[in-house]
Amino acid sequence: MILFPAIDLKGGQCVRLIKGDMAQATVFNTDPADQARQFAAAGAEWLHLVDLDGAFAGAPVNEAAVEGILDATALPVQLGGGIRDIARIEAWLKKGVARVILGTVALKNPDLVKQACRTFPGKITVGIDAKGGKVAVEGWAETSELTALDLARRFEDAGVTAIIYTDIDRDGLLQGVNVSATAELAASLAIPVIASGGVSSLDDIHALLGALPASQKGGGGIVGVISGRAIYDGRLDLKEALQLLRERV
Length: 249
Hints:
Blueprint: E1 2-10, E2 13-18, E3 21-29, H1 32-41, E4 47-51, H2 52-57, H3 63-72, E5 77-80, H4 86-95, E6 99-102, H5 104-108, H6 110-119, E7 124-131, E8 134-137, E9 142-147, H7 148-153, E10 163-167, H8 179-187, E11 193-196, H9 202-215, E12 222-227, H10 229-233, H11 238-247
Parallel strand pairs: 1-4, 1-12, 4-5, 5-6, 6-7, 7-10, 10-11, 11-12
Antiparallel strand pairs: 1-2, 2-3, 7-8, 8-9
């Protein structure tokens, strides 16, 4: 299982939100590139980046900050937020992004996701964010009537590298990751799942590891976990968590 430290970008700064509310943003570092270097020094193997402004605007906004991170570290980066056409996907991949995360467009234009998977094999991840069990898009400002599993199943044979599943009701609250819902989703899909939302301590990592056998019954299993606020707050020691995961390989 891979631990992805999260860098959420708003106004060129590294922030964390509470339940996706842009009005409840806490700035943790004014220099995202510096934050990326800190994560690399701690031993991280990947970075998870989200252009929060871009998610609301429907187009990239924090391009300079993302480019600064790409220049600052050799770590592979997965990036989401405002990426909604093939040209933008290609542009980010050419700039050095390892994987692009498609969220809103996955709901509103699933054919584009499938086209992207064919054009850029191994480079496309789908982000599915759920509020009250239903998929939310447009920076979590709009909720659909579709469940996370219903949406994920649309991409079973498309070539998506992973589904990033976020429980919005827990995001940024440090109340614990939704292990049961994540494991259930992973067990129901051939596509691997990355857990996100609510990670509060090393206990959550242990809980996800404990759910691995159940999550892998006929499915792709849980292959990663994203953490942001818990790392910044010091509730989750990044080095300790990474060591735990290496020991379980």
